[in-house]
Design goal:
- Helix 2 (41-50) packs across helix 4 (65-85).
- A hairpin with a 4-residue loop joins strand 8 (201-205) and strand 9 (210-215).
- The chain has helices at residues 18-23, 41-50, 53-61, 65-85, 148-155, 158-165, 169-190, and strands at 2-3, 27-33, 94-97, 103-107, 114-121, 124-131, 135-141, 201-205, 210-215, 226-234, 237-244, 252-255.
- Helix content is 32%, strand content 28%.
- It is an alpha+beta fold.
- The longest helix is centred in the C-terminal third of the chain and has 22 residues, at 169-190.
- Strands 1-12-2-6-5 form a five-stranded mixed sheet, with helices on one face. It has a five-stranded antiparallel sheet with strand order 7-11-10-9-8.
- The two termini are 21 Å apart.
Length: 260
């Protein structure tokens, strides 16, 4: 996974960049933001002006200010990021969702075949963008959670559970969240809920930045169609990326510096 340090996003940088769009033919881009770092009243007002009436209504329903902030920044980030790849004002993007809530671009017409996926967790927002390829991204803050071994028994494949049984402490939590984010990213790329994902596949982490998927014998799926990798944008967060490489061609995953 590559980090291009010259790709800093300025607060008002939403102009179409043809070279950025062209690079998606061989790359996938992950854009980050830290909601708590965006505090200027004028900036937040501009972000809110980009949202649709439905998004504004949903934003108003959040009880806590931190949740409202995360929702606002994440949905404005999607619009601002997409406008980097097409000559579209951020407020003009339209979206539709499938039965599991996965959003897709539904307008304007005649824009590039962009695919994206959004994730947010405590302290971080990430948006993954590809050209045509199915994609999913999940971010988690690595921290203690209630009974993670019970969660692993319910959600993970037996092979993954056996690997976790060998670990404890920080090593256990690191591997637990690796498996969780990989599974979540894969399900999001497929457009399904993680709770309908099944246990007929498992993940192997090949190194700190790469992973691969393996399916049970006879399941009929080809793991070579999928590309998985990790990012650690902060010391506290892990991000997993899943991309369906239907052409069996891996894309370079470029992490854009955090927007602040």
């Amino acid at each position: 996974m590559n980090r291009k340090q010259n790709a800093v996003v300025k607060e008002d940088s939403v102009a179409f960049d043809s070279s950025l769009l062209d690079s998606l033919r061989r790359e996938a881009h992950v854009w980050f933001a830290e909601p708590a770092a965006i505090t200027e009243t004028s900036t937040l007002a501009r972000y809110k002006s980009m949202l649709s009436p439905q998004e504004i209504e949903r934003h108003s329903r959040f009880r806590y200010a931190t949740d409202r902030q995360s929702y606002l920044v994440s949905h404005a980030l999607v619009r601002r990021v997409l406008s980097q790849y097409a000559g579209v004002d951020p407020a003009q993007w339209r979206f539709s969702s499938n039965q599991y809530g996965r959003p897709e671009i539904s307008g304007p017409n005649e824009v590039p075949p962009l695919r994206f996926n959004l994730t947010h967790t405590n302290g971080l927002v990430a948006c993954l963008v590809t050209l045509s390829a199915d994609c999913g991204v999940d971010a988690e803050r690595i921290s203690a959670r209630a009974n993670p071994r019970a969660v692993a028994r319910k959600m993970f494949a037996e092979t993954e559970q056996r690997e976790l049984d060998k670990l404890d402490g920080d090593a256990f939590m690191e591997r637990f969240f690796s498996y969780w984010t990989l599974r979540e990213a894969y399900c999001k790329a497929r457009g399904v809920s993680i709770f309908h994902s099944g246990k007929n596949y498992f993940f192997e982490t090949t190194n700190a930045q790469r992973a691969r998927i393996k399916f049970d014998t006879g399941y009929g799926c080809n793991g070579n169609q999928w590309q998985f990798c990790f990012s650690r944008p902060t010391a506290e967060h892990i991000v997993a990326i899943a991309i369906r490489a239907s052409d069996h061609r891996e894309r370079e995953v470029v992490c854009r510096p955090i927007v602040s």
